[in-house]
User: What shape does this take?
Amino acid sequence: MEKYIGTKEIEATEMNREDYNQLRGWKVPINENPLDEGYLVEYQNQKPNVEGFKGYVSWSPKEVFEKAYKRVDSMTFGLAIEAMKKGHKVARKGWNGKNMFIVYMGPLYLPPYNTEDTNRKVNDRTAKWIGEDTPLDSQGYFAMFTANMKWQPGWLASQADMLAEDWMILQ
Assistant: This one.
């Protein structure tokens, strides 16, 4: 078998096996402990399988769940990167500045400054450096909204940021 690693965004709440079985209208099998601790898990981007839920619902034993998932207010830098790629803004709990956050700015392509097209195109500030006849082909990058309320493109993480486990998704 090959190894896999994944990330998914879910909603979950603590729930024992018996309560989950009651929710589903099932009886706990005789060879299973109804008091097993675990989590009710809801996968938002999948077809609902239980009335009253917006996504696919399942149950996970506590130990399995806690090895696979971290709360979105105590993530590693790797999980923060994945969250940014999915469109979330993130920050560290330990940052001193208020309202600071990081986002991923995806690739951007704009036609040249001198095009007659009225849609978005390279502005004169950028054309000064790349030429009026050159389209802009910008690769993705991270940007920070600073404590001074300024946009800082090309943000780079420090060693402390990369090793921290206090990253959180901001709403």
